[in-house]
Amino acid sequence: MGGGFLFPLILKNSWRNRRRTVLTILSIGASLCILGILMVFYYVFYVAEATGDQALRLVVRNRVSLANPMPVSYRQQIAQIPGVQEVTVLQWFGGTYKDSRDPANFFARFAAEPDRLFTIYPEYRLPDEQKKAFRQERQACILGRKIADRHGLKLGDRITLVGDIFSVKLELVLRGIYESERDNENLFFHFDYLNESLGGRGLKDTAFTFVVRCRTLEDVPRVGKVIDDTFRNSTQQTKTETEKAFEVSFLSFLGNVKAFLMAISAAVTFTILFVSANTMAMSVRERIREVGILKTVGFTPGRILGIIVGESIVVALMGGILGVLLAAGLCYLIRQGPSTFADVNRFRLQPVVIAGCMLSAVFIGLVSSLWPALSASRKSIVEALRYND
Questions:
Q1: Among 285, 304, 284, 302, CA closest to 294
Q2: Is 138 in contact with 192 (CB distance < 8 Å)?
Q3: Contact status, residue 208 vs residue 61, Cβ threshold 8 Å
Q4: Is 60 helix (H, G, I), strand (E, B) or coil?
Q5: Prediction pTM value
Q6: Residue 88 DSSP SS3
Q7: Distance CA 141, CA 240 (A)
Q8: What's the CA gap between 63 and 249, in Å, rounded?
Q9: What is the pLDDT of residues 210-241, one digit of tens each?
Q10: Spatial CB neighbours of 250, under 8 Å, sequence gap ≥ 6
Q11: Which of 11, 17, 18, 242 reaches 20 to 30 Å from 176, CA-CA?
């Protein structure tokens, strides 16, 4: 009785109680869907490597807090540091577009310097005539394709932003729609237009962040250190970090997200393990006399153990496949929504996440059935046949 004989038996026994099997598959699938989404979040923020262009960029902010501005004159000093290819002001504007109660109206809005923006972000692609129009018109702005499509905006449309951090109202004209594989939900307009609109108010001639593009990867750590050393004795000291590190530190404002994701993942796995173990225990108890019959026809304890554990793993793998499919669907829905604190285009099921979900399913199937299977396989023929529950 080889493995080829046992597998059809295992598969058939997995469906002997269809209602219980379907409910078990659904419960494992729902739990592994949640686990898969959590793993996607963890992968995106803490495992995925920076892209080639992203790895060359540094973000400079105030050492005390992101909310503390720095003099805009820092840009000229940073630009003179060897290894710096380009540097631009990147001023978070925030504000309100149309109705702030609609999540679709929330997207990133930055004041930047058009002459430098496309050197810093070469992955932002748009026709040369649109770039030229953006540079030449003070009230011009450009918008990511995803946002333009969501709001049905086209070239020449007017966009009104009402400030909150900056108490100004900006009237913008859409002169370009850029394409990008990631980070395509931003609006950029002229920093000079914002600065002039402030008049004599307190935030004039200041910037919350500068973005620096280095010439080579080898320049990145050295340039970051030199920038911070340059302003070490200034009133407004700086903190310079890679763009990837800046994104993770921005996420940390929500709390210890890494610990939260790991704790929830552990709780989900622990819970479904108990649910599955209870189901398998019930299934094995109903079949003790059947174990005695199998032994009388020559099945060894090892083969009986393999059959019961195999059934549990098959059911768990079915739940794992369902969970992966549900997680892939949820990732798709997330990608259709607006970006809030992260670029949602990155939320995809990576092969390592799929493998993690399937290994978790095997682990759940194995652990939940191992003890009841061992207990049943060790019973003698007489004890098994006399068993009555």
A1: 304
A2: yes
A3: yes
A4: strand
A5: 0.72
A6: strand
A7: 28
A8: 13
A9: 999 999 999 999 999 999 999 999 989 999 99
A10: 66, 341
A11: 242
